[in-house]
Amino acid sequence: MIRFGVLGSGKGSNFRALAEVFRAGTLGAQPVIVLSDLEHAGILDLGRKFEIPCHFIAPGPFRTKMSPEAEGEIVQLLREAQVDFVVLAGFMRVIKEPLLNAFPGRILNIHPSLLPAFPGLEAWRQAVEAGVPEAGCTVHLVDSGVDTGKILGQSRVPVLSGDTAESLHARIQIAEHELYPRIVREFAGHLLPRD
Ligand code: GAR
User: Fold this and answer.
1) pTM of the complete model
2) Can you say whether residue 23 is alpha, beta or left, with left for phi > 0 and alpha for psi between -120 and 50 degrees?
3) How far apart are CA 84 and CA 113, in angstroms?
């Protein structure tokens, strides 16, 4: 079975969607470790509920990235867990060389916009403020840029009149929970298991 590690900073609803599809036997890949830069992130509680090993990694002094030492620790844990690829599920820091080089072309991210529109933080709020009629979510490979890697799949959702940033994000998240398992299944289907 193809194995993947999950990195997240938030409540973990995308991880939950992946874990539930795995449990149903139709993901074609197994989440084997959950890592977070926030000690009390909901995603760590969820990981424990799914009986998957979970670790908090102290991020170091920077706000937007992990320290090189912290990323090194992540790489070591992912290697020890023998993961074939990495899934970012609401991980709110930029990925730098240690992790990128350890899993080249094998780190996926989900972003709550139709990239290349609205990269960066709170993309749903950016969409409401820009007044666009349509929003959505994108799964892409992670490269050294911010939300710039190769796009693997997208889902569209309408922006409704009267939408707030929160109501739009809720609609985008419903689309995310369908899109991410579908793209992870496709991606894993193209990988060879380690043995
Ligand atoms: C998701 O909407 C995801 O697209 C977004 O954070 C949320 C995490 O929710 N990620 C980013 O904005 C990354 N730039 P979750 O913790 O419930 O999965």
Assistant:
1) 0.97
2) alpha
3) 27
Q: Residue 53 carries which DSSP code?
A: -
Instruction: Tell me whether residue 190 is one of the annotated catalytic residues.
Output: no
- pLDDT tens track for 66-123: 999 999 999 999 999 999 999 999 999 999 999 999 999 999 999 999 999 999 999 9
CA triple 12-79-29, angle to 5 deg:
55
Which atom of ligand 1 is nearest the CA belonging to 13?
A: 17
CATH number at residue 184: 3.40.50.170
The alpha carbon of 47 and the centre of ligand 1 are apart by a number of angstroms equal to 16
Domain of 148, in residue numbers: 2-191
Report in angstroms the alpha-carbon separations of 83 from 6, 17, 64, 75, 135.
10, 19, 25, 10, 32
Q: Which atom of ligand 1 is nearest to the CA of 169?
A: 2
Number of folded domains that form the chain = 1
Length of the chain: 195
C-alpha dist (Å) from residue 29 to 3, 21, 135, 188: 6, 10, 29, 6
94 vs 98: CA distance, rounded Å: 12
The full DSSP string for 65-133 is B--HHHHHHHHHHHHHTT-SEEEESS--SB--HHHHHHSTT-EEEEESS-TTSS-SS-HHHHHHHHT-S
